[in-house]
Amino acid sequence: MTAVSVVREGHVAVLEMHRPPANFFDRDVLAALADAGEQAQADGVRALVLSSEGKHFCAGASLGDSTGSLDPRASAEAVYEQGKRLFRLEIPIVAAVKGAAVGGGLGLACAADFRVASAPSRFEANFARLGFHHGFALSLTLPRIVGRTAAEHLLYSGRRVGGEEAYALGLADRLVPADWERAVALDLAREIAASAPLAVRSMRRTMRADLLAGLDAALAHELDEQEQLWRTEDCATGITASLSRERPTFVGR
User: Fold this and answer.
1) pLDDT tens per residue, range 142-169
2) Domains delineated in the chain
């Protein structure tokens, strides 16, 4: 099956990732999402739903799989170049966050305009627990969504947030029963699509202008910081502990 499918329902298109159960993304998956989104808006779609097959929305990035590069920076740059295309889509995006949105998966969810979650959903900026800097423009998106102090706490602690707390923080815009995430996201997208499409696009350009203006610089800075920290002992410790499902002990080197 293709990594991304598109189903159009009137003026709404549902983009679905097909890499269950964790739905890790790489450059090719993001490119397929961006291709589908650009084609949908060219065909007159007025709003998008971003969803995933299986248990989880997205557990993060799988760097290097599709580029064949042994250079983690080159792999990350290739991923971010495709991610920029998603940010620059002209029509609103509603993310249906079923299960986990972790690391880069949280970044992907926060690239959307709205997020629909349920109590079992979980949001996790786990980068500090892995020993390196956050990415996918979370420097810009997370403070816009939950406020600066809450964003800093989520990033510095790397703690997991369930759907109910995410809704209280504003990280989720709708809290729905489990397994209703996609249906309610579709309803929200239909509500948006019923408005005058030129007006919605114009308003969205205004509301996201500062985000897009800072996007390139934010991603470049995040990547510079990531590259430095990928070389540290703490990063190796964090990744090893994550893979073995153990608690890391960091030493500051």
Assistant:
1) 999 999 999 999 999 999 999 999 999 9
2) 4-178 (3.90.226.10)
